[in-house]
Amino acid sequence: MLLKYQEIAESIENHIRDNALKQGDKLPSLEQLVTEYKVSKSTIRKALELLESKGAVYQLRGSGIFVRSLKRPGYIDLGFSRGFKKDLGEFEMTTEVLAVEVRAASAEVAANLNIETGDAIYYIKRLRFIYGKPLCIEESHYDKSVVPYMNKEIVKDSIFYYLRNGLKLSLGFSDTYFNIGKINEAESKLLKLEVGEPALRLENIFFLATGQAFNYSKTTYNYEESQFFIQATSTD
Amino acid sequence: MLLKYQEIAESIENHIRDNALKQGDKLPSLEQLVTEYKVSKSTIRKALELLESKGAVYQLRGSGIFVRSLKRPGYIDLGFSRGFKKDLGEFEMTTEVLAVEVRAASAEVAANLNIETGDAIYYIKRLRFIYGKPLCIEESHYDKSVVPYMNKEIVKDSIFYYLRNGLKLSLGFSDTYFNIGKINEAESKLLKLEVGEPALRLENIFFLATGQAFNYSKTTYNYEESQFFIQATSTD
Q1: Is the N end or the C end of chain B the one with fewer CB atoms within 10 Å?
Q2: Do B131 and B123 meet the contact criterion of CB atoms below 8 Å apart?
Q3: Interchain contact B200–A (C-beta under 8 A)
Q4: Hey, are the CB atoms on B229 and A176 less than 8 Å from each other?
């Protein structure tokens, strides 16, 4: 269930997409949006702030509201956690589920999920393909006290869709860490790369809106099939 | 010159740092902050929104305002463009300036800066070191119509400091693209890596607050000396 300002934000995003608006294109003014959507100024302001934080628009005091858009399709967004579906929606993606099991949290997993070593977690291992080529190996750890049930059907599709719509969880924010290394023996087999070739290793921690960590993931990308982008909404 | 809400945001950030507050620690309520800073509710709200967009706090309706913080020092922030000074401030960083010259924009540079091929740009090439080890090679292209003057002294220090405080430019937002490849001959010499070793290649486009692109940079990182993080303020 979306709140009113979220609905309006989505409607403005659709307007930008449907009209193929480009970076720098001017949107209707705050006043015009108030008239169009028949809501208060503060609701429109909240919708615009949400769009600004998502890097979809920028506001220039005294001048108006403008479109922000990325020129390059096919890049995976690391700055706004929305899953592959949105970034690579136009590409043919498939998933092979390698493991779905309840485990005891290792010290590393426990530290990242802020739970105790030995606490129950769901361990999910998936291999993702783009046009049939291996894109990444993903190992996810879900705090079982937050996500009490999972199965192969669920993890073959979008886990986040299940969390939102099945478990009615309110997802919050995420931290991403990454570094570059070399492909090891196990990765080499799954990603069809030589040992020693470049590897992008990414770690994600996802938090509920309450600030509680619920998912710690490690993903190794095939450098030949992946490229990434990040939008920053301000400079400091 | 900071606006009042920016000053308050900075003051709250200092409070978090000086008291070494951790993720999940509760901050004073909106009402308490109004009393403390003697400003309107809407000024405090703007300060909190700024901090939220920077990933420094998160707000939970009905519960309060909480600290967001990263556990891992020494990571370069790609989600919020603030330069090495803030991320690696505790490390010993040095810069070798390899080129500062006015050039005609190539087709690639022109496309990214939204100018015409052949327009004048400042081309800056720098090699950055961390504790004396090569960290990255950076090639920057500045639209000369926005940045009419640069020299070796300026680019040896913080260029963004000069843009803000010397040229009084109002910086806006940035787009970052990256992919992983292999070190080439030229990079190998500067970064002291073997040809074929992993390379992180990053492209940045920086925009003024008006939405005009002013800087297009390409940076190749030494994978042995660098690690990165990105904070996402929401999930979609």
Answers
A1: N
A2: no
A3: yes
A4: yes
